[in-house]
Amino acid sequence: MTIETSLTRLLGLSAPIVQAPIGGLTNPRLAAAVSNAGGLGMLAIGFRTVEDIRENLRATKALTSRPFGVNLIIDEPQEERLAVALEDGGVKLVSFFWGDPARYLPAVHAAGALASLTTGSAAEAKQAVDDGVDIIVAQGWEAGGHVWGEVSTLALVPAVVDGVGSGVPVIAAGGITDGRGLAAALALGAGGGWMGTRFVAAEETGAHPDYLARLLVARETDTFHSSLFDIGWPDAPHRTLRNATIEAWLAAGRPPSGQRPGEGDILAHRADGSEIVRYQSISVRDSVSGNVADLSLWAGQGAGLVHDVLPAGEIVRRVTAQAEAVLAALAKP
Question: Which of 42, 93, 130, 204 is the most exposed place for a label (fewest CB within 10 A)?
């Protein structure tokens, strides 16, 4: 069977899978590989320079003729980055996160693109649709990386689906790492799954080997929701793998910023020699050297189902095939 949904029809996909914009791990090879396999690849551009954005867009379009998208974090002005992303018409979806996207929507639609917003409640989702957002991402608390809401995926997705009505595709995010999770999301009324943690372990991400080693042996209980890794992005709750930084902070009684154990410690360096300190918000690529294990290792509660590193296209194909098999089995009398 082929999985066709409101989301796949709207975006021109053959698989109801969106690769979450996993910060600094997104890159043209990853986005293009996901798109070429029938899903929607995404580039995170919210913290990139204009020159970087142009280079990443050119490289992605050189690798795929399929739809792909970009993500903007909107707790700061993003007009310039958005204009660059839209200037040549190659972006199919602009996904917004961490704020109200209303002022950006006219530019997105004028360029012929679609807009999505990551939400944490049905009320927020309905308001976004009333403002003109085309697609809703319902992000459950299980999600890795930065987490907007406090409701689980299982409870949130059907509430959002009911709240926005049948004409608006909803993408389920949080804890979806295999075809069973994707099938469950579709059963809840979603038009697709938004997958981040599974794609951290894609060959194309360039995630640091120590990060991957921790992820591949993690259990579903090995993540931690906090606002601890706040240097560079304060007051932003997130979910990471538990590590010595977290355990030392807990043992110290959860002290506030400025009083935390090891604050100011230089743990690692980027390829250009710049320092990375404890409690910094960073995506740990393979170009980082140093004590990677104690940095912000983003991961959701679905980490316990991630056991291998695969090409991104193969991840899309395996997850889709498993979801198809689950749905076919459920349809049998």
Answer: 130
